[in-house]
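Researcher: Quick sanity check before group meeting.
Model: Go ahead. Protein one:
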Amino acid sequence: MSAPTDNPRLCLVAITKHGAAQAARLAVDLPDADICTSAKFAASFSGLPNAIRAYEGALRDEIGPLFAGYDQIVFFVSLGAVVRLIAPHLRSKDEDPGVIVVDDAGQYVIPVLSGHVGGANEWSERVALLLDAAPVLTTASDVGRTIPVDILGRQLGWRVEAPKINITRVSAHVVNGEPIAFIQDAGSPDWWTRPTPLPENIHRFARFDEVPLERYAALLWVTHAEVPAERWDALKERLVVYRPPQDGVEDSGA
C-alpha cells in the first residue's frame, strides 16, 4: 500500500514551460520531493536542492517507474492526458500511488487517484495551500465533511478490520446521512480532526451493549475486544471495527 501522508516519496512532474514554473515554485516548499521533467525544462529547477529526473523520450515511458518509485505523484499536466497516461498502470486503491493534477496556471489541485487510502486528498489540500490554489475534492466523505470509513483513525495508528463489502456498504450509509452508531471503548478520543462538528447522524456510545441495534443502519466500533463470528453474521454488512494500538490497558470486553 502507498504510504499515506507522513514522509511520502513525492515526485513533481512537469512537461511544459508554465508547468515547470509552477512545479519549481512548489519545489521551494517541498525540498525532499523529486522532480521529473522534460530535459529541455530541467534548467527551470536550477539552484533547488531537489533531485532532478530529466527524460529525453516520451512521458508515457516514465509512468511505470514513477508508479513503482513514489507514493504521491503531482502532475503539472492536463487532467485528460494524465488519465490516459496512468490508465494502463492502475491496479487497486491499496497499491496505486496517490495521483494529483495541478492545472497549467496553478489555480486548481485535483486528486485523481487513491484519494483516501493513498493520501492524495490530504496532499491535494497541502499542495493547494502552498500554491494558493483551490483543491477540487470529489470523494463523498470529504465533500460532505463526514467520517471516512476506510481510513478513520489512521493518523492515530488505528487499523480497520472488516470485509471490503462492509466498508463499502457502511461508507454509503455514512455519506447518505443514515443513522450511524459510533462505539468507542478503546483508543484516543481525538479521532475527529475536521474543523466542523461531528455530523448529526453519528451517535456516540461507550459500550456495544448500549446500542439499540435496530435503530442504526451501521456501526463503527473502536475496540480491543474480540468480535465473535456470530456477531459479524448477525450484523451482516453493517459493522466496521477499528483496532487502536495496544496501550497496556485491559480490554473492557463487549
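Researcher: Fine. The other one?
Model: Protein two, sequence then structure:
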Amino acid sequence: MMAARPRNKQQINLPEHLYYDARWGTYRIKLVSGKFKSLGSDRDAAVSIAREYNLIARPRIGIKVDDLLSGNNGSMLGESAFSEHIPALLKRIIEDERPSADLTKTMENDAQRCQVFFANIPSSQITLQHVNDYITQYHSTSSANVQNRKVSWLKKLFSYAADESIMPSNPASNKKMRRVKSKQRQRLKMEWFMTIHSVAPLWLQTAMDLSLQTTHARLEISRIRYSLKQPNSKSCGCFWYEAPQETPFGRVFGILYIHRQKVAEKEAAHVAIPIGEELKRIIDRSRDKVVSPFVVHRLPEKRSNGISKEVSHISQLTPDYISRAFSALRDDVGCCDHLEPAERPTFHEIRALAAHLFDIQGIDPQSRMAHTDAKSTRIYTQNHVQWVEVPYAEIKTKAG
C-alpha cells in the first residue's frame, strides 16, 4: 500500500477533508456525500466551519468535548499549547532585534500576558478572533496608540512563530489598526516652563535646564555625568578643558558629549555640545551634598532592597521618574489646568520648546537634537566614534 502523499505548506494543520485550492486561492471541504464545497478564501472561517462539520457529520474525526477536557491542556491531537513556545520566541526576538532596555521590559510583560492567555490554545488553532479577544481582555480601555502597539506585538510574536513553523500563518496579519487622532499634546510655553521651574526642587530644575540648553530628552539627561576621562560611544557626560578656550561667541570650558540611544545606529546619534557659560552655570549649581557621578541626581527618600536595573548608581534617576515629577508639579502649580489632561505638555515637550528658541535665534536645532537630516554640521572622529559637533549656542533665561 502506497503511503499518502504529504500535504504541502498550505495544507498543513488543516482539519480532515479540508483542502486549499491554490488555483483559486480558496478552501474546499469534502462532504460525506463525496462532493466538494467551496468555503471561500478566509482560512480562519474555513477551518472553523470544517471542524464544526466534522464534529457533526464525522464524529470519529470531529473533536469531542471530552477530548478537550481530558487531554494535553486543551490541546488537540497532542499539539502543545502556544504558551510553551513563547519564552523561546521572546529570546529570539531580543537576540535578533536588540531592543532598548525599556522596550525589552515591555515585551517581557507582553509575553507574560500571552503565556496566560494562550495557555490552553494550540498554536495551529489561534485565529483572528483570539487576537480580538486578547486586546479586549487586556487593553479594552487603552488608547488607540496603545492598542495598536499591542497588535504590533502580536504580529511580531506570531511572525516569529510562523517562521519557525510553530503555526502555519500569522493570525494577526489581518487585524486592522485603530485610527489614531492627531497629536493633542500642547506645546510647552516658556511662561509655563518658568512657572514650573520656580517651584521645582534643584534636581528637577537641573534636568529642565539641561533639556532646554541641549534639546535632549529625559533618557539622555538622566545619563549625563559630571566628568568623562575620554568620550565614548555609550556614555553621556562632560569632558573639561584644562583651561577655558576663548571663542568669538564666548568662553568654552569643555564639551558635553551626548549619545542619543533612540537613533543609536545613526551617525548623528553622537553629539558634541560646547559647554559655555550657561551650561557651566547649570552644572556647577547642581552640585550639592550628595556625592554622585550624575549631574541630575537625588537620593531616594526610603531605603530599598536595591537599585533599578535602569540606573547604575543609587542617586541616578530613571527617565520615568523625571517625567512623572515634572507632570505632577505642572498640575500642582496649575499653569495648564485649562487644558484636558491628555493635552498638557510633558517633560518631553521641553525639546520642542528648545528647538523653537534656538530657531528664532537663527540656529539650526537639528544637529543639536541628533536628527539625522541635519544639514550644516561638522563631523569628526575621536576614539573611532564619529561625533557631530554643533555650534556654540545658549538660551538665556532668568531661571536659577
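Researcher: One line on it for the slide.
Model: The longest strand covers residues 236-247.
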